Amino acid sequence: MDWKRLVQFALLGSSDLEQYAILLVRVSIGLFFAVSGANKLFVASGMKLIYETLVKAKVPFPHQTAYFVSSVEFVCGSLVIVGFLSSPASAALLIDMSVATLTTALSTLPKGLSRLNWLDDFFYLPEVLYVLFFIWLICSGPGKFSVDYWLAGKLRS
Q1: What is the value of pTM for the model shown?
Q2: CB of 47 closer than 8 Å to CB of 64
Q3: CA-to-CA distance for 59 and 57, rounded, in angstroms?
Q4: Closest by alpha carbon to 73, among 129, 30, 18?
């Protein structure tokens, strides 16, 4: 066993595996948003739930906003899955989740928490994790296993 290589892997990871990690995260989060958006767009109970959530959050034009948000999640999630226009799609979903955090998710945090406990609960919100994933995907790019990577290669030739 090559201990030096094992220690280097433990300390630095492996750039050989990085593309597979990007693919896994991109497809997983894209699937989540595409399915979530589809459930809101094409299933009456899903649309009703997002509409009620928007009304409760006092978002203007809740009916139109529900269709808009659901469409963004479905279309952009689908784009992220295949890695086509990944950065703009990730940016749109990042904005979607930032607004969801500010309008809905923050209100679920208990009142009167210490700053440390509030921060702990804040980072436990799934919307915050999604925002971080989208920042990472925008910065890392969609990876080698994407339509964007293929198109960029065609542009270079």
Answers
A1: 0.89
A2: no
A3: 6
A4: 30
CA distance 134 to 69: 17
Measured torsion, CA atoms of residues 98, 103, 109, 114, in degrees rounded to the nearest 10: 70
Greatest CA separation found in the chain? 63
83 and 24 in contact (C-beta within 8 Å)? no
Residue 114, both tokens: 């210490």
- Residue 58 tokens read as 């006092």
Tokens at residue 154, please?
Answer: 């065609």
Based on DSSP, count helices (H) and strands (E) in the chain, helices before strands.
8, 0
| Rounded Cα–Cα distance for residues 156 and 148 (Å) | 12
Reported as a single tens digit per residue, the pLDDT across 5-24 is: 888 888 888 888 899 999 99
Cα distance between residue 77 and residue 63, in whole Å: 21
The vertex-66 CA angle with 65 and 69, nearest 5°, equals 80
Q: Tell me how far the alpha carbon of residue 65 is from its chain's centroid.
A: 19
